[in-house]
Design brief:
- By secondary structure, the protein is mostly helical.
């Protein structure tokens, strides 16, 4: 080859990168859908929040149940100069029995949902698998929330009556001699309303899931 002959020019040709909408390109890895990653992160946060609400609901309903079934006390009261024996227990009130039954039902529901949610979170799979599943959970949360609210409201009325008595009558304040029973019943009702709030919050998350997917 003679020195006068020119060498052919080396031409570097680079093909333009194709980018699918909703995907990001990296020089060191495959294409990953951006929207898919974002949806997965949001879903994991929602699932973790769901499990946390179930845990708080379980603890509050168990507290309401245990406090009410241990509410029992005997004492005496003076009425018109006579000493009368008093005995109070949650089984003597239909409202308190209703609260015990609903607390047990909510505790069982929360425990079941918590176990299922935790198992799916450990497997990194969605807690709610379909719209039908979401509707079933939403219906259960709604029914139990309304029933728990009803039980708490009825029990709160009985607890308030025991504490204040009836005006313009000889019925006294029973909570003075039965203060331990009344205190336990009041705290139990408070935890019942907390359980109701947790169920309502879970139902709101169910609605948000249904609106997004």
């Amino acid at each position: 080859m003679s020195e006068g002959r020119k060498k052919p020019l080396e031409i570097g040709i680079q093909m333009p990168e194709t980018k699918t909408p909703g995907q990001s390109t990296t020089t060191s890895g495959p294409l990953v859908p951006v929207s898919g990653e974002r949806d997965q992160k949001l879903r994991r946060k929602a699932d973790a929040t769901h499990a946390l609400l179930r845990l708080v609901c379980l603890l509050s309903s168990v507290a309401a149940l245990s406090l009410m079934i241990t509410a029992e006390q005997a004492a005496t009261i003076s009425l018109y100069g006579f000493e009368l024996p008093l005995y109070s227990k949650w089984t003597l009130s239909d409202s308190f029995e209703f609260l015990v039954g609903m607390s047990a039902a909510v505790a069982a529901h929360s425990l079941l949902q918590l176990v299922l949610s935790t198992a799916k979170l450990l497997k990194k799979s969605p807690v709610i698998t379909s719209r039908k599943h979401a509707w079933i959970i939403f219906a259960g949360d709604q029914v139990l929330a309304y029933a728990m609210m009803s039980a708490g409201s009825a029990s709160a009325g009985v607890a308030n009556l025991n504490r204040t008595g009836i005006r313009h009558s000889a019925l006294p304040d029973f909570c003075k001699p039965l203060h331990r029973f009344c205190d336990r019943a009041t705290v139990s009702v408070t935890f019942a309303f907390l359980s109701c709030f947790m169920l309502a919050s879970s139902a709101v998350l169910d609605v948000l899931w249904l609106s997004m997917y």
